Amino acid sequence: MKVLVLNCGSSSVKYAIFDDGADKVLADGIVERIGGFKSKLKHRFGGGAILEQERVVPNHEEALKIIIDLLINGTIKNISEISAVGHRIVHGGEKINRPVAIDGKVLKLLNECAELAPLHMPHNILGINVCQRILRHAVQVAVFDTDFHQTIPDYAYIYPIPYEYYEKYKVRKYGFHGISHKYVAKRAAEILNVNIEELKIISCHLGNGASLCAIKNGKSLDTTMGFTPLAGLMMGTRCGDIDPAVVLYLMEKEGTCLDEIARILNERSGVLGISGLSSDFRDLEKAAEKGSDKALLALEMFIYRVAKGIGSFIPVLGGLDVLIFTAGVGENSSTIRSRVCKMLQCLGIELDEHLNLEKRGIEGIISTPASDVKVIVIPTDEEKLIAKETIKVAEEVFTLVN
Ligand code: ADP
Question: Where does ATP bind (predicted)?
Fold first, then answer.
């Protein structure tokens, strides 16, 4: 069974096609700046050859047609070979706690969730609609960023505001990056050759967006993102947790409207907002080396918040066996990993700095044998997990049909 995995964003479509069992990527790529005059296409063939083009891609439907044409020219003979499509869906609300085959009922639920994630859901749903037209024969499966967090207990997910807002509007913590947290936790158990049920894990997904997740018995018990992906850690351009009164104060002082305050908190804050330089941690590390005070402060703030967040999950788990670093920063920045772990020495965490320097973008343990906590770098592979989950659901559908 060949599976196409799609991640439809507002102006981009990321894709990957997997073979049977999802162990091998046959081809993958991204179409960016959809809707603009110069959309960018990057396609990687199975053998590793890369095709890069600039062309006009007016909408998502056109992007998908281009992707399918590329797949037919070199990866598959016919679109009928694609048995299932796995869609990465940002929000499944409260009612969906596992990957599901998309039918009319699921689509209705997704549309209901759309207002909970207005920046992402309309594009996710658009991707499904287009695939239902172009790849009509394939089973469409939705895999959610939120479903892994459905095991978080109510005392952790309810906000201390009048309960009626939870009842009326479903305002609560949902959590995101669930596909990534689930994938790396499972992988950590495989690397350590230990049953995941026996591990207390904190996964640090540190990319442009960043979140921590406390995982026990293979289940998410808490995470730092909340009702939206704006909560929790300080991020590339997002503020993370701040005193909510700051928002009210700024709106009053600056006469800022809702759209503008949303832009400030989502796009102009985080390490970009502090440094005034960049949201990219590589730029900040370079600027800090050259003596930029603001870059130094931004990094210091980020590291402090990651370490503090990890510490806050220790009582949630009742201890810690494994600390995982993943995503762009977590996989690559040995400096940030080292500084976070130094702040956690009181937990018995001890890094092998040699291994830490060595593991950039590659998987491996970076703690010393004497460390009380195993620290592991694991490159995330959300597409692979989506493909595996999609195959499971599609097989159930095929069994039912036959
Ligand atoms: P997202 O998926 O949230 O956009 P990624 O997981 O791709 O984010 O991470 C992107 C971030 O990773 C970039 O902003 C960059 O700051 C950071 N990054 C990538 N490589 C390195 C590196 N070698 N050192 C430090 N940071 C890095």
Answer: 14, 205-209, 280-282, 328-332
The residue from 28, 145, 222, 381 that is catalytic is 145
Distance CA 87, CA 5 (A): 6
CA of 207 to the centre of ligand 1 (A): 5
Measured between alpha carbons, how far is 220 from 216 in angstroms, rounded to an integer? 7
| Ligand 1 atom showing the smallest separation from residue 327 Cα | 6
Say what the pLDDT of residue 361 is. Answer: 92
Residue to mutate, 235, 279, 329, ligand 1, most ligand atoms under 8 Å from C-beta: 329
Bridge partner residues of 377 (DSSP): 325, 364
Q: What are the φ and ψ backbone dihedral angles of 21, each rounded to 5 degrees?
A: 90, -10
> Angle between the 60-72 and 121-134 helix axes, to the nearest 10 degrees?
50
Q: Which CATH class is domain 195-382?
A: alpha beta
In the chain, CATH 3.30.420.40 covers 2-144, 195-382
Q: Beta partners for 25?
A: 18
From the candidate CATH numbers 3.30.420.40, 3.40.50.720, 1.10.4030.10, 3.30.710.10, the one assigned to the domain spanning 2-144: 3.30.420.40
Q: Counting atoms of ligand 1 from 1, which one is nearest the CA of 281?
A: 16
What is the C-alpha to C-alpha distance for residues 99 and 84, in angstroms, rounded to an integer?
13
Average pLDDT over residues 205-209: 94
pLDDT, one tens digit per residue, over 110-145 is: 999 888 888 789 999 999 999 999 999 999 999 999
pTM flag (> 0.90): yes
Place of tokens 């990866």: 75
> How confident is the model over 331-380, as pLDDT tens digits?
999 999 999 999 999 999 999 999 999 999 999 999 999 999 999 999 99
User: Measured from the CB, is residue 332 less than 6 Å from ligand 1?
Assistant: yes
145 as an active site residue: the answer is yes
Q: Which helix (H) or strand (E) holds 183?
A: helix 178-192
> Which residues have a Cβ under 8 Å from the Cβ of 231 and sit 6 or more positions away?
173, 224, 225, 240, 241
Percent of the chain whose predicted confidence (pLDDT) is above 70 = 100
